[in-house]
Amino acid sequence: MASRLPRFSDGPIIVDERASDLQREALLRILSGQDTEPGATVFSVFASTLVKVHEPIFSKIDFEVNIDGRRARLVVPGLIETRGEPILNPVTGNEHRVRIDMVGGFEYTLAEIGRGWSKASGPISYELADSYGQFAHLHLSQSGIVQ
Description:
Largest sheet: 7 strands, antiparallel
Number of strands: 13
Structural class: mainly beta
Number of helices: 2
Number of domains: 1
Strand content: 35-45%
Shape: globular
């Protein structure tokens, strides 16, 4: 199976280890932009900019998200830990609610903006603290955003 799977560049694609062989193959084709019209989805656009190839990783994925609450948590053991939270007013400590309404975009139609922390190891190692974050529903087909 591994020899038939697409390969990825600049950052490995991580797929939940519980996916069947057919699900893995389908997800990897979607995430690499192979099953979308050119430029129609964020996956297709990003895949066209990559230069270094890494094998996909199949691992346990622990993921929780509350888009309206601007909170998220992602853990892939030994590879990445990420969390997202709302932006806070520096004076009052109250949560700010900021949104981006992207008309005609290829990523999403509406995103809640927050802040995030990430620490990754493996083929690409980095650490971000109190950085920019987006929380959005993705409704995509091979032709782009589904309205």
